[in-house]
Amino acid sequence: MHSFARIRKATKDDIFFIRSLEMDPANTMVHAWDAPTHHTNMDDPDYHYLIAEDIEGTPLGHAILLDNEPGRVEWRRIIVARRGDGIGKAFMKAVLEYFFTVHQAKVIWLDVYERNSRARHVYETLGFREVGEDLKTVPGERLVIMECQHPQKVASQRGVTQ
Fold first, then answer.
1. pTM over 0.85
2. Does the residue 129 lie in any domain?
């Protein structure tokens, strides 16, 4: 059994793996890009492609994030090859920690299909809260906008000092 061990930055050699996860019929709630789009985005310093690996270096999933503005990061995509064994949640925790500590993000936000209750539940357990909706991006679908604030920022808003 593979378990999450670390994250690393993706390279263009990972695009085949990334595309294979995006094209998997089990991932219909995740948008897919073609290989040229991934190549272009990897050249853009505002995009962050990350790979989840097990202890042996086997890729387990990927995440794509985008700097929107200083301190604000959009979580564009997360897909893991196997669901139900905690890899996705552990991967997300590591990515959140990286962006809040190393990258100095203040807010990380994402959108998720309203009907994707499983993903919404995982996001909520990681500190994301619903802040709005998008009814225009995907015709006929309601996307829920969720945000996760830097833990220190949340604590200071509650009057707690760290």
1. yes
2. yes
Domains of the chain: total: 1
Closest CA to 39 of 68, 60, 65, 10: 10
Q: Are 59 and 51 in contact (CB under 8 A)?
A: yes
Domain of 34? 6-157
pLDDT in tens, the chain (162 residues): 578 999 999 999 999 999 999 999 888 888 899 999 999 999 999 999 999 999 999 999 999 999 988 999 999 999 999 887 889 999 999 999 999 998 899 999 999 999 999 899 999 999 999 999 998 888 888 999 999 998 765 434 434 333
Residue 162 lies in a domain: no
1 part of a folded domain: no
